[in-house]
């Protein structure tokens, strides 16, 4: 089994990465000198701090100690006269490139490519072996300095999640760079630890007639006001010019940075409270939650286990105590691109600045129109009209109402019921619940008010076995008997999700579609779980090449960032409802929310780049390989994989709580239910993380964590 701390931000002893990221508002603003002075001040205050440079350019590895361009050399000098610490050098440089250029260029020159995931791993690997209490991580240049063509320093910073100490140049125009940097840092959800204003040799930047003293005072004043408005109570340190960086010079700078250093160190637990402090933060959140919040499918008095989450990135969920979990759920199958995807975040920010929301009655906007167009491009042909709603369940309600109104409009007023296979899941609102499996859907609790629908056998023919036409007999019989009462048949194509994670044969869908045509009833596909690539096709309907009359999508529509769903119908259904002045009677307040539409559009753009197919294919292989060892373990009924879905079905219901505890200990996030332990990881999950997810399941079954 892989070591669970291997890629975690915790040391083997459970200590999370501590420190600050020192970033500049640009190149040459005095970031390295400030890092050196902070290092000196913190060391003198008794903290075993190390300056860490993830990437150093302009210096050959052999010349780290001597090159005038080497930051490590500067850090060494900054500690002159300070007692050195055994086994803890002033600085560490993780990557070194000779070309004095941006990291992406300097690395490329040597045939290498830097990326955030690996840089982060290198930083954590260093954290695991060095005896430092905290790191001062120094970036290279400004926040958006590229690490490769897609990622920059800010991406690395947001993956690390450390507070940021910003160093800005105090000169004409410098304030602009600092404010832009502050905005970028806060938009990524990072906290500011402090700001240092460093004087330039020519604050007037060559402009004649500048009142330099006035300019410098005003820069600090405006910045202070801005920080107050943002609610950032952080030290703003004005550094004065030091002519000579000798021991006395360093000491002077260290003194000036003392308030900032104090503030930075105040977030580090002292020896006694090391992890208990962090834990209590999580515990107190869970406690507050328990006195005010209700969780899904849970008791409000007899509390299930609960984990507090601090942040997310890529395929990771970071808990309040710093523990990092590999996500195997995509947050209920929605976060297909992983968390905090930069393109989705950019779309969200841009739309938020422009127009977060307007009512959709009588108004329209570009994000909604563009999203509808993009959806119509990728759904099965014949679907022509998009109705936006707020969640999957509501999309299903809308689909049911569309079917009912369609039948009314053509005079088939007796068609008021729906036919659906057993073991389906379509949501938790009343109408949607009425077409869920009557047993697992808890119909008994609500039977008094649920409309009574017609249920047929679930599609029994496995996806991976030869098709048996007999599996359509039940559908055929019911349609023959009740066809005239049925407004529509509704089902999840190919994969029945929450009702049992069951994969069935595409031929069933083709046969069912034919039966629907013969019975003159509509066919509704609920693609809320299967849409957007999860099964290996953009929509599961493509496996059977069947076109439904109505299709619902949701969950992954916004890449998991915001709630949005769409019910998409054929031109035939739309024109039927609207004939003779008819209108469709539904209109949620937040219909086509512009933020959600903008993010969904960005998510479809990411899908359109085409990487998802390759990603889902490799997840499928990883799942087949990784789950195969579970096949022969005692208690296992079946192991099946389709696209980026992996299922271990047990003979008996599992103990979800004890399994979840086990999984969190192993550093993975899964939420088994009933007899099912299943995986629906984000498409971006790396192979090694897939292995961790699968091994965690195997380990749980071997150790009996599902039984206790
Ligand atoms: C999750 C789901 C729903 C309900 O969606 P919500 O957004 O939770 O309301 C409906 N149908 C299927 C197939 C689902 O997986």
TrEMBL record:
PROSITE patterns named in the record: AA_TRANSFER_CLASS_3
Keywords for the protein's UniProt record, in alphabetical order: Aminotransferase, ATP-binding, Biotin biosynthesis, Cytoplasm, Ligase, Magnesium, Metal-binding, Nucleotide-binding, Pyridoxal phosphate, S-adenosyl-L-methionine, Transferase
Pfam family name, one: Aminotran_3
Binding site for pyridoxal 5'-phosphate: 392-393, 526, 588-589
UniProt subcellular location: Cytoplasm
GO cellular component, one term: cytoplasm
Signal sequence range: none
Active site per database record: 53
Binding-site positions, ATP: 28-33, 71, 138-141, 235-237
Residue(s) at site: Participates in the substrate recognition with KAPA and in a stacking interaction with the adenine ring of SAM: 297
Function: Catalyzes a mechanistically unusual reaction, the ATP-dependent insertion of CO2 between the N7 and N8 nitrogen atoms of 7,8-diaminopelargonic acid (DAPA, also called 7,8-diammoniononanoate) to form a ureido ring.
Subunit-structure text: Homodimer.
Protein name: Multifunctional fusion protein
């Amino acid at each position: 089994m892989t070591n669970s701390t291997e890629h975690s931000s915790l040391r083997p002893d459970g200590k999370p990465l501590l420190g600050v990221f020192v970033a500049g508002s640009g190149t040459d603003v005095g970031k390295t000198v400030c890092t050196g002075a902070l290092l000196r001040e913190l060391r003198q205050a008794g903290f075993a701090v190390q300056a860490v440079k993830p990437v150093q350019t302009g210096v050959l590895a052999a010349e780290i100690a001597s090159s005038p361009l080497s930051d490590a050399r500067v850090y060494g000098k900054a500690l002159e006269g300070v007692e050195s610490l055994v086994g803890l050098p002033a600085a560490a440089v993780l990557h070194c490139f000779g070309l004095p250029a941006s990291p992406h260029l300097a690395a490329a020159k040597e045939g290498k490519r830097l990326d955030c995931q690996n840089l982060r791993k290198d930083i954590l690997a260093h954290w695991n072996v060095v005896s430092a209490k905290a790191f001062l991580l120094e970036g290279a240049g400004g926040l958006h300095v590229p690490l490769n063509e897609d990622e920059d320093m800010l991406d690395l910073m947001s993956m690390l999640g450390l507070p940021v100490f910003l160093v800005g140049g105090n000169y004409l125009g410098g304030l602009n760079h600092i404010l832009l940097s502050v905005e970028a840092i806060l938009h990524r959800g990072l906290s500011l630890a402090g700001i240092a204003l460093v004087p330039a040799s020519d604050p007037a930047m060559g402009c004649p007639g500048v009142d330099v003293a006035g300019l410098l005072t005003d820069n600090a004043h405006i910045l202070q006001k801005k920080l107050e408005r943002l609610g950032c109570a952080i030290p703003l340190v004005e550094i004065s010019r030091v002519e000579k960086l000798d021991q006395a010079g360093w000491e002077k700078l260290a003194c000036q940075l003392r308030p900032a250093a104090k503030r930075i160190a105040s977030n580090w637990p002292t020896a006694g409270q090391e992890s208990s402090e962090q834990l209590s933060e999580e515990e107190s959140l869970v406690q507050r939650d328990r006195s005010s919040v209700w969780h899904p499918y849970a008791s409000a008095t007899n509390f299930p286990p609960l984990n507090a989450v601090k942040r997310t990135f890529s395929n990771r969920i970071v808990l309040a105590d710093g523990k990092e979990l590999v996500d195997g759920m995509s947050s209920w199958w929605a976060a297909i691109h992983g968390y905090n995807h930069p393109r989705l975040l950019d779309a969200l920010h841009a739309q938020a600045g422009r127009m977060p929301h307007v009512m959709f009655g009588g108004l329209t906007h570009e994000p909604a129109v563009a999203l509808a167009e993009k959806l119509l491009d990728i759904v099965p042909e014949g679907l022509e009209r998009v109705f936006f709603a707020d969640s999957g369940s509501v999309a299903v309600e809308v689909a049911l109402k569309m079917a009912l109104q369609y039948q009314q409009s053509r005079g088939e007023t007796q068609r008021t019921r729906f036919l659906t296979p057993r073991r389906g899941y379509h949501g938790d609102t009343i109408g949607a619940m009425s077409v869920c499996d009557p047993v697992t859907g808890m119909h008994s609790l609500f039977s008094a008010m649920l409309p009574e629908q017609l249920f047929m056998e679930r599609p029994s023919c496995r996806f991976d076995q030869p098709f048996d036409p007999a599996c359509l007999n039940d559908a055929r019989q019911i349609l023959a008997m009740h066809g005239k009462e049925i407004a529509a048949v509704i089902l999840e194509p190919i994969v029945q999700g929450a009702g049992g994670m069951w994969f069935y044969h595409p031929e069933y869908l083709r046969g069912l579609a034919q039966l629907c045509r013969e019975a003159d009833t509509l066919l509704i596909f609920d693609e809320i779980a299967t849409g957007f690539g999860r099964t290996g096709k953009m929509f599961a309907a493509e496996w059977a090449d069947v076109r439904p009359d109505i299709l619902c999508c949701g969950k992954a529509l916004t890449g998991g960032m915001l709630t949005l769903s769409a019910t998409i119908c054929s031109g035939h259904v739309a024109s039927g409802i609207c004939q003779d002045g008819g209108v469709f009677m539904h209109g949620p307040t937040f219909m086509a929310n512009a933020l959600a539409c903008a993010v969904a559009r960005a998510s479809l753009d990411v899908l359109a780049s085409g990487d998802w197919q390759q990603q889902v294919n490799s997840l499928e292989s990883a799942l087949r390989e990784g789950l195969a060892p579970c096949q022969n373990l005692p208690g296992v009924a079946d192991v099946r994989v389709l696209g980026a879905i992996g299922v271990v079905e047990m003979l008996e219901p599992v103990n979800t709580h004890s399994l979840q505890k086990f999984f969190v200990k192993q550093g993975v996030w899964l939420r088994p239910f009933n007899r099912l332990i299943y995986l629906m990881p984000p498409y971006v999950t790396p192979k090694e993380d897939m292995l961790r997810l699968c091994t965690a399941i195997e380990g749980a079954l071997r150790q009996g964590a599902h039984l206790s």
